[in-house]
Amino acid sequence: MITFPNAKINLGLDIVEKRPDGYHNLETIFYPIPLCDVLEITPATRTDAPDYTFTMYNAAFGGSDDDNLVIKAYKALAADHKLPKVDISLYKHIPTGAGLGGGSADAAFALKMLNELCELGLSEEQLAGYASRLGSDCAFFVYNRPMVGEGRGECLSEFDLCLEDYDLQVITPAGIAVSTKEAYAGIRPHLPEVSLRDALARPVEDWAGILVNDFEET
């Protein structure tokens, strides 16, 4: 089984406060875009195969395979459900460290694939519950449609927005990556002058002057 985990962009991102648990509360609009990785999961054929094998192409992963979000997704489901032994292949096309959610998308799509492959019958809400354990924006990719993200990003609500008539270009400078920890280090939480919902209610041509991403300054 093959699927194509897609990236997302944030239409505005306001960091409104720091939480007692060390995380930050934010407000953003997650919007899916057609820039995709390739993820394949197939049942293992060898009788002596391990629970899973994992191979990644076109990118280097800094830690062990066990630290990859796709493997964490497999283990999260395996803790509650009987899963077959599988071979997992991931071809990376979404740039890493670019705020596009590539790793989170891979994990969420792995959950959805395993749910279908193993006929677990889990709902979107149940899959989103598993996804939220893996990362703040993972749950968004279970739904994979425009949504308001609040809390750490895992509190989601529908947002009616379609940008299909616009040309979207994603530009990522080669060799530059920013870790989430580094990105948050320079943030000073504050309430926005214009709420995201109010900003996005205006014509797209007006967004440049009022739609703010708090990470840009850092």
Q: How does this structure look, described?
A:
32% of the residues are buried. 27% of the residues lie in helices and 25% in strands. Strand 7 and strand 8 form a beta hairpin. It is built from seven helices and eight strands. The strands form two sheets. Strands 1-4-6-5 form a four-stranded mixed sheet, with helices on one face. A four-stranded antiparallel sheet has the order 2-3-7-8. It starts with a strand and ends in an 8-residue tail after the last helix.
User: What is Rg?
Assistant: 18 Å
Q: Please tally the helical runs, counting DSSP H or I stretches of 4 or more residues.
A: 7
What is the rounded distance between the termini?
41 Å
> Structural class from helices and strands?
alpha+beta
Low-confidence stretches: none
* CA-based shape: elongated
Task: Give the rounded overall mean pLDDT.
Answer: 90
Total number of strands? 8
Order of helices and strands: EEEEEHEHHHEEHHH
Strand content: 25-35%
Major sheet: size, sense and barrel closure? 4 strands, mixed
Q: What's the layout of helices and strands?
A:
Elements (H helix, E strand, L loop, with lengths): L1 E2 L2 E13 L5 E13 L1 E6 L8 E6 L11 H10 L7 E6 L10 H16 L6 H11 L3 H6 L3 E5 L3 E4 L21 H6 L10 H5 L6 H4 L8
Parallel strand pairs: 5-6
Antiparallel strand pairs: 1-4, 2-3, 3-7, 4-6, 7-8
Helix pairs in contact: 1-2, 2-3
In a few lines, what is going on in this structure?
The protein has 218 residues and is α+β, with helices and mostly antiparallel strands.
